[in-house]
Amino acid sequence: MESVLRVASEQITSEILDGEVMIVNLETGSYYSMTGPGTEIWQCLQLGSAPEQILGVLSENYSVSAEQIEASLKKILDQLLEEKLIKDSEHPQGSADLDQVRHGATNKIFSEPTLNKYTDMQELLLLDPIHDVDEAGWPLAKDNSDN
Amino acid sequence: MISPDTLLVDKPDISPEEYFDHHQSIFLKVCESSASTEKKYYRLGPFCLEFIFPNAHLVSRVTPAFAHLEITTPGKVDLSIGFWDSASTFEKLSPPPWNRAQGGFISFHGGAYYHKYNSVSGCLYSFNAKHNTACFWIGNYKNIPYYESGAPILSILNWWLKDTAYQLVHGGALGQASGGVLLIGRGGSGKSTTCASALRSELFYAGDDYSLVKTDGEPRAYGIFNSAKIRPDMLQHFDHLKGALFNSEKIPEEKPLYFLYPHFKERLIKEFPLKAIFIPQVTNTPQTSIEPASPADTLRALAPSTIFQLSGLGKEILFKTTRLVQSLPCYFLKLGNRPEEVPDKIAAFLQGTLS
User: Fold this and answer.
1) Is A114 on the interface with B (CB under 8 A)?
2) Most B-contacting residue of A130, A133, A134, A146 (CB-CB within 10 A), to test interface
3) What is the dihedral sign for C-alpha B234, B235, B237, B242?
4) Chain A window 14-53: which residues touch B at a Cβ cutoff of 8 Å?
């Protein structure tokens, strides 16, 4: 039984639009984007895939050396793991239907997948307004303490 | 200072459903013992909303934002909301056992039952998705902050619309009966100033900060709140709004808040088909210009700010905002330094006469 990589949790949500994937971490407020091969890598991860399977898909989609793809793939997977957007899963490998990610157009130019990170929404989640609780247990905001 | 995490309960002895029943039963008890319970009805797009108040105290703090949508002969009610406070009713409410905390919000969700407490405003929102009923509570009606009066019950509306094609979005809307635009982007991007400028133009106003949109079929925008907020440094451009100012005594501590109904009722529009999405951007150029934006640019400007402003149902919001962006052309609205000229530019765009 080999482990696979998959989207880390229910708190990670994503949509693909116009070839670009937007990934939102609902817990931290960070959001991310990837294009080109990055979008295809994300599609594989949504299905739950081992790195070798993703490498196989990208090798079919792009006519560049497996070594070049492997180096790029390792780099982006490390970033996704570091951002806690994906995780190792104990589930058995093998059944992911990756055909939907294979486009077979090997003449497409392979560009280094890049994870763009945006943190401008984090301030909305960094509020820490609870200064006390009243005798009933209601949290009291600093400027609202007579509730 | 207390971390929200310390308030969380691993195994609460009451379920979200039971807490909703508890909250609603107290609200109903308060109404039964009141001689002045009041009901109001509003038409929001295809929906009918019912607001119930056990007394008048919250009416003047919640209903001005919806006044342009009020109807006297309701049909089938789609969402019923009870509004009450403890100070004026002398009835207490115990807090729910929180199971989630994020930012200033502490929540207690499960199944079809949602509860969220905004620890900044002191407002508790409870919603029962099985029966489309909701309760709003605050400790003391006098403490409702101005921004809650300007855009009340966002959380309840967001939960209620979950399984529909409709979505609340963080964006303003301007247009005419034949079509209009959605203006999106985070605070400070020029949405509110652009929308307020339209009150002196041929465009009509549907909202400056939040709008309801229909995200399938032909996209439409619906005005929810007739409120408008203006940055204090832009006030000199908006002398004509003075009569509609709600919180004049609390400026500059509070951002100026206006209710455009009834003062500008002829400039308000309830709905229109959407023709485009605009991303306003403040520039230092004299002229306003309109330039194409990619769908991805637009989704980045719309989805995260909507998700984190509404603080809940992020997956559903991302899905619906993606569908909306896919179906409309998108543009940057590069704002020149004469806000009064911007609506004319948008109107020319809508009429296809933009040079």
Assistant:
1) no
2) A130
3) positive
4) 14-15, 17-18, 20, 22, 24, 26-27, 29, 31, 33, 35
Please check whether residue A128 touches B, CB under 8 A: yes
- Domain segments of chain A: what residues? 4-144
Q: What is the CA radius of gyration of chain B?
A: 20
* Phi, psi (degrees; rounded to nearest 5) at B238: -130, 40
Tell me: pLDDT of B323 over 80.
yes
**E strand spans, B188-312:** 204-207, 210-214, 220-223, 227-229, 257-259, 271-282, 289-292
State the best of A17, A30, A125 to mutate against chain B, taking most chain B CBs within 10 Å.
Answer: A17
Structure tokens of B3?
A: 């971390």
Quick: pLDDT tens for B226-258: 999 988 887 888 888 989 999 988 888 888 999
Fold of A4-144: Outer Surface Protein A; domain 3 (3.90.930)
**Global ipTM:** 0.91
CB contact under 8 A, B7 and A118: no
* Fold topology of B4-160: Phosphoenolpyruvate Carboxykinase; domain 1 (3.40.449)
Residues, chain A, total?
A: 147
Closest alpha carbon to B292 in B253, B330, B328: B330
